[in-house]
Design a protein that fits this description.
Elements (H helix, E strand, L loop, with lengths): L5 H14 L5 H12 L1 H4 L4 H12 L8 E5 L5 H9 L4 E6 L2 H7 L7 E4 L12 E7 L8 H11 E12 L5 H10 L11 H9 L4 E14 L2 H11 L15 H11 L8 E13 L5
Parallel strand pairs: 1-2, 1-4, 2-3, 4-5
Antiparallel strand pairs: 5-7, 6-7
Helix pairs in contact: 2-6, 8-11
């Protein structure tokens, strides 16, 4: 296919925006939440930096002429990719336009594109590396993400992603369950679903594994404040509406205390790391 030029990027983005491909209600909410959190995100993004750094170490040896940072957020790993591949052209893509506005002045990518991972505004076989750290868990149709990866990657291209699966924030989920039985914690797909979908994606799996990452907090409020600052507080359908009363907050604090460790209150993230490669002959 024809190489992706700056004009082609802009044209494709305009076509995608005109067709309304990333205006589904759930995705609007995701975009709005993360756009609002752009200014506060980096100050509390210890997990995001750790996971993205780990994903970088898992990349196979490659020299991409063009890479895509999918769900680029504030651009932390767009800048890391530029440092790792200084001769490459980079595309930072995010559904949250507020994140792109924040990231653009900081540099790192050649292009900053508002787009949906399930409907990428990119040409077929146009990138050598798709890098995505802690973004695709917000995509309800992960099979579409994989299909798009297969489409836009060049033969031999790499899709490296880190995501979250079931078991993430189980301490917070179980504590709320003990309080009122309602949905207060984001749902994530099972690791087995990642295995199954990747296996039938048409991409070759170099690696796919889940590793726990545990953070510790002095109290529950510190955890919930961080989730809000990240834009990752509960945005699932079925979440409780209205204000959370003081009595319920106190009950949550008491329920969470049973998980306390010497380091503080744990918050466990089950992180999926994957390296997929598009076959040379599709």
């Amino acid at each position: 296919m024809t190489d992706l030029s700056h004009c082609a990027v802009l044209k494709a983005v305009k076509q995608q925006q005109a067709s309304g491909q990333h205006t589904l209600p759930d995705k609007r909410q995701v975009a709005a939440s993360f756009s609002k959190a752009a200014a506060s995100y980096d100050s509390v993004a210890d997990l995001q930096r750790a996971v993205g750094t780990e994903l970088m170490t898992r990349l196979p040896a490659l020299a991409p002429s063009r890479w895509l940072d999918l769900g680029s957020g504030t651009g932390c790993f767009s800048r890391a990719l530029t440092q790792t591949f200084p001769e490459s052209e980079g595309i930072a893509l995010d559904i949250a336009e507020g994140m792109l506005r924040y990231a653009r002045p900081l540099g790192g990518a050649t292009h900053y594109v508002s787009g949906d991972a399930e409907h990428l505004p990119l040409r077929d076989a146009s990138v050598d590396l798709m890098f995505s750290s802690l973004a695709v868990q917000w995509c309800p149709d992960f099979s579409a993400v994989l299909s798009e990866a297969r489409r836009v990657l060049k033969p031999g291209g790499v899709f490296a992603f880190a995501s979250l699966c079931v078991g993430t924030l189980f301490e917070l989920r179980d504590s709320w369950q003990a309080v009122d039985g309602m949905v207060h914690v984001n749902r994530f797909r099972e690791f087995e679903a990642y295995q199954r979908l990747c296996a039938v994606s048409g991409l070759n799996m170099l690696s796919l594994k889940v590793l726990p990452h545990v953070l510790h907090y002095p109290d529950v409020r510190s955890l919930t404040h961080e989730l809000k600052a990240l834009g990752a507080h509960n945005i699932n359908p079925g979440r409780p509406g209205g204000l959370t009363g003081r009595a319920r907050i106190q009950a949550l604090i008491e329920a969470y205390e049973r998980f306390r460790q010497d380091e503080g209150l744990p918050a466990t993230y089950q992180v999926v790391y994957a390296i997929l490669v598009k076959p040379d002959i599709d």
